[in-house]
Amino acid sequence: MLIEEADFGTPIRVSETRVTLHIDGESVSVPAGTSVMAAAMQLGTKIPKLCATDSLEPFGSCRLCLIEIEGRRGTPASCTTLAEAGMVVRTQTDRLAKLRKGVMELYISDHPLDCLTCAANGDCELQDMAGAVGLRQVRYETGDNHFDAAHATPKDRSNPYFDYDPSKCIVCNRCVRACEEVQGTFALTITAKGFDSRVSAGGTDFLSSECVSCGACVQACPTATLIEKSVVAHGQPDHSKVTTCAYCGVGCSFKAEMQGDRLVRMLPLKAGKANEGHSCVKGRFAWGYATHKDRIVKPMIRSKTTDPWREVSWGEAIAYAAAEFKRIQAAYGRDSVGAITSSRCTNEEVFLVQKLVRAAFGNNNVDTCARVCHSPTGYGLSKTFGTSAGTQDFKSVEQADVIIVIGANPTDGHPVFASRLKKRLRQGARLIVADPRAIDLVKTPHVRASHHLQLKPGTNVALVNALAHVIVTEGLVDEAFVRQRCDLREFEVWARFIADERHSPEASEVHTGVPAAEVRAAARLFATGGNGAIYYGLGVTEHSQGSTMVMGLANLAMATGNVGRPGVGVNPLRGQNNVQGSCDMGSFPHEFSGYRHVSDDATRNMFETLWGVDLSPEQGLRIPNMLDAAVGGAFKGLYVQGEDIAQSDPDTIHVTAGLAAMECVVIQDLFLNETAKYAHVFLPGASFLEKDGTFTNAERRINRVRQVMSPLAGKQEWAVTQELANALGYAMSYADPAEIMDEIAALTPTFAGVSYAKLDERGSIQWPCNDKAPNGTPTMHVDRFVRGLGKFMLTEYQPTDERANVRFPLILTTGRILSQYNVGAQTRRTENTVWHPEDVLEIHPFDAELRGIRTGDLVAVASRKGEVSLKAEVSERMQPGVVYTTFHHALSGVNVVTTENSDWATNCPEYKVTAVEVRPTNHLGRWQERFQLEDALRKRVVEAAE
Amino acid sequence: MSANDTEKLAHMANQIAAFFAVYGEEEAAAGVAEHINRFWSRPMRAAFVAAGGEQTDLAPAAARALANIKT
Known about the structure:
Number of strands of chain B: 0
Mean pLDDT of chain A: 96
Oligomer: heterodimer
Number of strands of chain A: 37
CATH topology of the largest domain in chain A: Rossmann fold
Shape of chain A: globular
Low-confidence stretches of chain B: none
Strand content of chain A: 15-25%
Number of helices of chain A: 29
Low-confidence stretches of chain A: none
Largest interface: A-B, 28 and 20 residues
Structural class of chain A: alpha/beta
CATH architecture of the largest domain in chain A: 3-Layer(aba) Sandwich
Largest sheet of chain B: none
CATH class of the largest domain in chain A: Alpha Beta
Number of domains of chain A: 5
Distance between the termini of chain B: 15 Å
Number of domains of chain B: 1
Radius of gyration of chain A: 29 Å
Helix content of chain B: 55-70%
Structural class of chain B: mainly alpha
Order of helices and strands of chain B: HHHH
């Protein structure tokens, strides 16, 4: 069955005041501000409409939703008429029917009558309305002012995911409004006048336009004017399930619409709390990787990494992996093996891998890819607030008045949240951007940052200290909040520390490069502008002072009283879909699920009792420690779940040296990734479409992932981990992921109230969910911090060891872009490559001119660690002295250049600061040349005989 | 553990000491020890302590922390 969500025609309003009116003789009570159209829909009365849909503000253009109101003249549009107390409305009269039929006749006279062969057949509102009003004939001739097939404007098929057929446009403006109101890009408009008027992507084709392919226009279109290519190719889906996107940490809910086992399209779910019906190009369209020909669907083994892969049965692969891990532990000791869990996998899968390590390997050598992204968030927020998570839900941004975005680029990295943020900014909230680059948010249609603090990479802590200095020294501290909610002694020590002149904006300017006056103005705005909310990303955490900076942001929020209510808070924007969840599930080597240290006897005893095995009280190795130990000869075996450390982790040469030194590397993944080149066992993974489970997004929201197609390799990943544990001699016997979640709930206080039954009933739950908060916790630290009193930490600025000098005068910083995701394993196997076929180096015109570099030139990027070549893109988004690139393509080898420097507290790598020199070149770097030579060689597969 | 490894551990300890330095030497030494005891694996702690006296470039708080690191 296809899941259909009701369309109320206009947005659902929220008001404590209710009004009661009468529609077609029935009484209905609605919140003040509700349209008559939406009020009627509450009674189940669908007033005919074309230009109205409840994701958009009422427009009143189609003249189909006319009504009669007792005591009033005329026939007003029900979408733009607000319900009033005592109002008596009629939605069906002879006069209305005649008017509607006339309107429909005009629409259809200017529309192709090819319904039977139209891709929208069966899902077309125009067709539905023609039926609803009883249109039986069109009296107008073709030609001149009416549709003429011979002279119809040709289709625009330039976008890889949807077609635009101008001849089917009814000029309802829904797409234009969706682009403005929902997405906030303003890429579409209506061109020409009268019968010639049509939607236009700014006078060019869609692919060349400013359109970001979020799909909002396609979703809003009531006809086949804008329609998914997949629907054109396959026809209408016939059943659907609600599931969760497997891309970024926003965690959008989608309806996966299917024909049999084939995914036809992903439609964002209006009831999805994280996205409220919106989507981005990745979640909406870039799911083709799931059935890409590169998928590895048979288990494989090889004794040496120079051998070709040999396809084997599941039983042989698992037995081989288990025997190897046992052999290694017997030869080199219990601590010589470990595992890495993945933020792309479900909570249940991650929980099982860390359980395998602790219970079957008998050590705590488990870490997760959050090590290289948000581990400082966990450390910093634990120290200050008492728990490792963001404080708000995404909806909170609707009540923010002043928003700091620091070290994050939401329009590229978290686009659906960015749309909600931009909507709030268009309503008047003020924005402070702190970023070395002029990211899109600094100046985008109808949004302009009040302050862009364009700091030098590596100076975050100096900047946050300067902001706090102004707040303390200018008497802007929220003293009532601090007195009531924070540890006063710690605050007083901090206030004295931060008031010191060395933290002033004037003294900090030499480090940050940000004019002191700008910092002072930004600080005053944040402290006095109403609800202040902080959103940050990896530009905060991926530094040698990443944890210090997270604490600095927490200090700032506490000092200004911006914690514990909607509209405020400290909000990490998580990179991958389940970063929050993989951390919650006990993926770190020092803690069990729920962030409890392995040395805590009471906690460990609880796990030991349920798991029936003694557990080590000693924390294990982090990823960098594992690699160091491997190079040193003490660490010999690794189980990698859905990660590609050979591409994503810094200092590639060191990472691959560590992998090459191991005797058994087991990869569980969809594709033969870069890490698999150093592996001995390959266990095929299952895409998010092939399995059941849960993801937890950046707002702590636990969302269900639901299987919509059979696993291509025949097994879901949790089942493979279970078989490996059993082969290692530790019994696991879960029947399904729901049972795993039950165990998580039994062992994890913040998940105590979570179950699949409750998730199915409520749609999603934000942890903590337990006896104190049975329906979850949208806002944390409301009356008290999790740790009791908020703790101010001293955050002295320490310049990074990585310094620019004469030999390496530029600072390289890395990040990602809208169309690609992380190492690109998924997005590179979709049509998204049309927007980003390769990684490029952004460089300021001044630096480019100095070096004789033009856009498109091949340039060598050399650091103390290595050298690679990329094409240059001269860009004024950069500041002089800073260059930028992405790491979505393996051949780019960007992490050959990045260093081993890391955060002092968590070892999170310092991706954001690498001193480099850039020069024109005519060849690839040596590492890249070797990559080209070895790529195919290391991926050879010998297929099993049938 | 190689010389490279102990050098790396000393560098990591110095980074931790640099964060805690602002708290004063005594509190900083306690902070360094607590952090290392909580987050470093036993072999890393043992190697760091074993190299103790030889690490001439250790920050004062890191050097003072050595005595309180569990091995």
